[in-house]
């Protein structure tokens, strides 16, 4: 008999959100690739994008650490992204190129916002027991934080952000799951 998955509906909704976000990005940047093929590149590009926007571009070694991938694999994928025109290397750091600004960037961003809002709306309809708010001080019980990985403190989400109300439900779910 199949096992009952704890919070199965909620977890399925989050999984649908992640997949829809990945598909939206894949369709905008690499529509000729399968989702699996594109996911390999998108995973690296998300880290590179954040570093670029924050003014802290990543080296191959740092990217390998934060993605927990072998450096040789990271270097191969970085080379492919340079050949595709999405990255350039300056010194030992990697920067996104103008090709990363797809012509329909606003539509892509609005698609992400719509996906997030839809998922938050669906999750808010689910019967999740009341939670208490508390700051996450580390990985949930039974989990070890990996070197180079960072724990997201959901209490640091700004309350005036466009998704603050929906985020509160997700934050409470995360806190409850982290304390189980």
Helices, strands, pairings?
Blueprint: H1 8-29, H2 35-53, E1 58-59, H3 60-67, H4 71-84, E2 87-90, E3 93-96, H5 105-124, H6 164-178
Antiparallel strand pairs: 1-3, 2-3
Task: Summarize the structure in words.
The protein has a three-stranded antiparallel sheet. It has two domains: 10-100, Arc Repressor Mutant, subunit A, CATH 1.10.10; 105-178, no CATH class. It contains six helices and three strands, in the order ααβααββαα. The chain is mainly alpha-helical and 180 residues long. Residues 133-138 and 145-166 have low confidence and may be disordered. α1 packs antiparallel against α5. The longest helix is centred in the first third of the chain and has 22 residues, at 8-29.
The fold-level CATH name of the largest domain is Arc Repressor Mutant, subunit A
Query: Which regions are unreliable across 5 or more consecutive residues at pLDDT < 50?
Result: 133-138, 145-166
Radius of gyration: 18 Å
| DSSP helix fraction | 40-55%
Number of discrete helical segments:
6
CATH top level class name of the largest domain: Mainly Alpha
Biggest sheet features = 3 strands, antiparallel
User: What series of H and E elements makes up the topology?
Assistant: HHEHHEEHH
How many domains make up the coordinates? 2
Which structural class matches the secondary elements? mainly alpha
Write a concise synopsis of the structure shown.
This protein has 180 residues and is mainly alpha-helical. The chain is 54% helix and 6% strand.
């Amino acid at each position: 008999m199949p096992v009952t998955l704890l919070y199965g509906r909620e977890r399925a909704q989050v999984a649908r959100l992640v997949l829809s976000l990945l598909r939206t990005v894949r369709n905008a940047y690499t529509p000729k690739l399968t989702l699996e093929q594109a996911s390999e590149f998108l995973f690296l590009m998300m880290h590179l994008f954040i570093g670029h926007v924050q003014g802290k571009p990543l080296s191959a070694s740092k990217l390998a650490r934060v993605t927990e991938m072998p450096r040789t694999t990271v270097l191969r994928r970085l080379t492919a992204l340079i050949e595709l025109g999405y990255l350039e290397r300056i010194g030992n750091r990697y920067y996104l190129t103008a090709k990363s600004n797809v012509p329909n960037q606003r539509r892509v961003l609005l698609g992400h916002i719509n996906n997030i809002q839809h998922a938050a709306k669906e999750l808010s309809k689910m019967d999740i027991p009341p939670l208490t708010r508390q700051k996450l001080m580390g990985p949930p019980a039974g989990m070890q934080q990996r070197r180079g990985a960072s724990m997201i403190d959901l209490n640091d989400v700004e309350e005036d952000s466009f998704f603050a109300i929906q985020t509160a439900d997700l934050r409470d779910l995360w806190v409850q799951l982290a304390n189980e």
